[in-house]
Design a protein that fits this description.
This protein is of the alpha+beta class and about 130 residues long. The protein contains 3 helices and 6 strands.
Length: about 130
């Protein structure tokens, strides 16, 4: 993992963890299915002053275009035993609970998901925790 230190986002840690687990889990599944010579999952963080940006990418070859447009749809899956709810829930958590967003693209060597979350620039306590 690489990126800046000491940035804080506001939200529920469990939801944030679930979102990150979904992205890493999907990358792991893609690597197991496509078996690149040197499997890799990279997680990078950045900050643009107002937002934390988290990118999760793999080198499993990417997602075919006809599938890419559906990956955030509920109950859409390409996995034999999948439910199709993981990326849909990830998007829902980010948009409705954390005021963030998620974008997908095929990178040079595989899938790339970019999560954008507002930084915690307030000191108000609304019952939702912030964490570094």
């Amino acid at each position: 993992m690489s990126g800046p230190e000491n940035s804080e986002i506001r939200g529920h840690q469990n939801e944030f963890s679930q979102m990150l687990l979904n992205l890493v889990g999907n990358a792991k599944d893609a690597l197991e299915e496509h078996k690149p010579e040197q499997p890799e999952i990279a997680i990078e963080t950045a900050c643009d002053g107002d937002h934390a940006i988290i990118t999760v990418r793999d080198n499993a070859g990417g997602v075919p275009p006809e599938i890419a447009e559906k990956i955030f749809d509920p109950y859409f899956t390409t996995k034999e035993k999948g439910t199709g709810i993981g990326l849909y829930m990830t998007k829902t958590i980010l948009e409705k609970h954390m005021r963030g967003s998620i974008a997908f693209r095929n990178g040079e060597r595989g899938a790339e998901f970019t999560v954008t979350l507002p930084l915690d620039n307030t000191s108000e306590d609304n019952g939702v925790g912030s964490w570094p």
